């Protein structure tokens, strides 16, 4: 059996060289333990547990550092940089050399690919040439670790990490390990894979998965929306050609709001005496009374 990257093995010292020690297994397959990879407790006269990986020259090497995971095991890894030719991202696996997540395992849309500091739930795999890569968890694996949410979780806040994204929306694993779905209508911007997000639970399904929203609760959103509308109104010297009679597409284009959200925001401003409507326009202040 040959030595394989991505595994932890127990080897014995064959001999010492200038750059470190050559270790060997029972079949006398040898691998170098560089001096920089030696840790406390190393004794050349005793067997040593090491993790095998490829060094920067592509050669099989050993380290006494314990990785976050081995072949077939999963762990959360942090993105530490992008491959120079945009062919993937590197994640830290707990040793001196980072592992590459191939672009084949990342979203097609570059804008939602993970960036430095994001986190991916990964395992280690070997390609057909025996090179070591990190691979994000499949949907099946996420289901294996997911825990059921209860109906009592409805409306609770959550924090989680996006693990998959697509046209239908985004999928998240929460800190409580609930599998969550985020519909595009429940967020302002599409989150990246690996990004940590916060929001609230808006539905709990019979299978224990949940639907979530990254938008504020209604009263919070109404306050934000009314401030946005009022700010635009004042930027036009207190009058604007928009009212609750305006077309939905006009409102969406100007304010980025649905017509319903715009009407609620406008209603709040009118109730507070900050705005009034007349002939399809909205004006700052209260409506002047007619002289008798």
From TrEMBL:
<dbReference type="Pfam" id="PF21191">
    <property type="entry name" value="CvfB_1st"/>
</dbReference>
<dbReference type="InterPro" id="IPR048588">
    <property type="entry name" value="CvfB_S1_2nd"/>
</dbReference>
<dbReference type="InterPro" id="IPR012340">
    <property type="entry name" value="NA-bd_OB-fold"/>
</dbReference>
<protein>
    <recommendedName>
        <fullName>S1 motif domain-containing protein</fullName>
    </recommendedName>
</protein>
<dbReference type="InterPro" id="IPR003029">
    <property type="entry name" value="S1_domain"/>
</dbReference>
<dbReference type="InterPro" id="IPR048587">
    <property type="entry name" value="CvfB_S1_3rd"/>
</dbReference>
<dbReference type="Pfam" id="PF21543">
    <property type="entry name" value="CvfB_2nd"/>
</dbReference>
<dbReference type="Pfam" id="PF17783">
    <property type="entry name" value="WHD_CvfB"/>
</dbReference>
<dbReference type="InterPro" id="IPR039566">
    <property type="entry name" value="CvfB_S1_st"/>
</dbReference>
<dbReference type="InterPro" id="IPR036388">
    <property type="entry name" value="WH-like_DNA-bd_sf"/>
</dbReference>
<dbReference type="InterPro" id="IPR040764">
    <property type="entry name" value="CvfB_WH"/>
</dbReference>
<dbReference type="InterPro" id="IPR014464">
    <property type="entry name" value="CvfB_fam"/>
</dbReference>
<feature type="domain" description="S1 motif">
    <location>
        <begin position="4"/>
        <end position="65"/>
    </location>
</feature>
<dbReference type="GO" id="GO:0003676">
    <property type="term" value="F:nucleic acid binding"/>
</dbReference>
<dbReference type="Pfam" id="PF13509">
    <property type="entry name" value="S1_2"/>
</dbReference>
<feature type="domain" description="S1 motif">
    <location>
        <begin position="153"/>
        <end position="215"/>
    </location>
</feature>
<comment type="similarity">
    <text>Belongs to the CvfB family.</text>
</comment>
């Amino acid at each position: 059996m040959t030595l394989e990257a991505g595994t932890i093995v127990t080897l014995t010292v064959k001999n010492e060289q200038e750059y470190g020690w050559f270790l060997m297994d029972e079949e006398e397959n040898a691998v170098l333990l560089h001096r920089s990879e030696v840790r406390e407790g190393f004794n050349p006269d005793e067997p040593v547990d090491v993790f095998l990986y490829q060094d920067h020259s592509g050669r099989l090497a050993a380290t006494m550092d314990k990785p976050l995971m081995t072949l077939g095991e999963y762990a959360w890894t942090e993105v530490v940089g992008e491959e120079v030719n945009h062919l993937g991202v590197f994640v830290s696996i707990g040793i001196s050399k980072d592992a590459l997540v191939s672009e084949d395992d990342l979203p097609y849309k570059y804008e939602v690919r993970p960036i430095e500091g994001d986190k991916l739930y990964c395992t280690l795999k070997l390609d057909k040439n025996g090179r070591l890569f990190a691979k994000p968890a499949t949907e099946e694996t996420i289901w294996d670790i997911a825990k059921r949410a209860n109906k009592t979780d409805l409306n609770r806040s959550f924090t989680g990490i996006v693990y998959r994204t697509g046209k239908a929306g985004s999928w998240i694993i929460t800190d409580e390990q609930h599998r969550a779905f985020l519909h595009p209508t429940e967020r302002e911007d599409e989150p990246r894979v690996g990004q940590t997000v916060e929001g609230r639970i808006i539905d709990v399904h019979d299978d224990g998965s949940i639907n979530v929203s990254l938008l504020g609760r209604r009263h919070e959103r109404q306050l934000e929306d009314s401030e946005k509308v009022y700010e635009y109104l004042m930027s036009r010297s207190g009058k604007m050609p928009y009212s609750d009679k305006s077309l939905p597409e006009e409102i969406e284009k100007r304010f980025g709001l649905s017509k319903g959200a715009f009407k609620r925001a406008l209603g709040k401003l009118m109730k507070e005496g900050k705005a009034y409507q007349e002939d399809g326009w909205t004006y700052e202040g209260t409506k002047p009374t007619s002289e008798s």
